[in-house]
TrEMBL record:
Family under the similarity heading: Belongs to the YciI family.
Domain YCII-related: 17-110
One Pfam family of this chain: YCII
Record protein name field: YciI family protein
C-alpha cells in the first residue's frame, strides 16, 4: 500500500471564524477520521495553527536566518493534512473526495517518495 498526503487548502480567513461557528464541521471531520481508522487507511492527521504564527528557518547560506511568519504571504494556506494508506491513486482519490466533503475545503493529493 502506498502512502498519500491529503493537504487541506483553504483561505487564511478561516482562522478568524469563531470556534463555536465551526463545531459542526469539526464533528463531521472527526467522524471522517473515525471512518478512516476503521477502514485501516489512517496513518496520521492534524490541523495546523495560524500561518502568521509560523517561523521560517533558512539555513541554505552561510548564516541561519530566522524569520517570523510564513514562507510565503498568500490568501490560501495549508490548513491541515491527512497521511493515508491506499492501494493506488484511484483509492486515494476516493478518500480525498470524502475528505474534501468532510472538512469543506479543497484537497491536494501527493504521494510520499520512498526513502
Amino acid at each position: 500500500m502506498a502512502q498519500y498526503m491529503l493537504s487541506v487548502i483553504g483561505d487564511v480567513s478561516v482562522y478568524d471564524i469563531p470556534l463555536e461557528d465551526v463545531q459542526d464541521q469539526m464533528a463531521v471531520t472527526s467522524r471522517f477520521n473515525d471512518e478512516l481508522k476503521a477502514e485501516g487507511a489512517w496513518v496520521f492527521a492534524g490541523g495546523l495553527g495560524r500561518p502568521d504564527a509560523a517561523t521560517t528557518i533558512d539555513n541554505t547560506g552561510p548564516d541561519v536566518i530566522v524569520t517570523d511568519g510564513p514562507y510565503a504571504e498568500t490568501k490560501e494556506v495549508l490548513g491541515g493534512f491527512w497521511v493515508v494508506e491506499a492501494a493506488d491513486l484511484d483509492a486515494a482519490l476516493k478518500i480525498a473526495s470524502r475528505a474534501s466533503k468532510a472538512c469543506a475545503a479543497r484537497i491536494e493529493i501527493r504521494t510520499f517518495d520512498q526513502a
